Amino acid sequence: MLHPSQFSINEAWVAFQLNEAPIQIGSGEPVNCVALMDAASCFVLMTILVPAGEPEPSEAEAKKMFNQAYSHKQQMPATLFIPAGYAGTCLEHEAERHNATVIRIPEDQLAVFIGEARQAFAERFGGYKH
After folding, report:
1. CA dihedral in degrees (31, 12, 69, 110; nearest 10)?
2. Domain 4-125 falls in which CATH fold?
């Protein structure tokens, strides 16, 4: 089982969706919130809102996510973890463009990294089925 203590800062990032069910912001279209997180610190480096009808961030949005996440430590990760069931193709391609190894992993094995962020997001914005 993976654990944050296995990694150094910026060695690995985790790409995941913060919400399980689409959230409504204002009167616009429902959205999903996708995040990039540092695996060692569990610090959320970047989030982006994606229309609920889209399976993942676009190529341009994936590029923006990586560029803004890079700005925190001026370093790209060696590894990107993506939950096995998440589309994430554009995020995967962007990671590979920066020479990162992409590892698809069952989401339950990422819970130690993403659980607290999801809980905090749900408390603040909803987006989780009960």
Report:
1. 20
2. Nucleotidyltransferase; domain 5 (3.30.420)
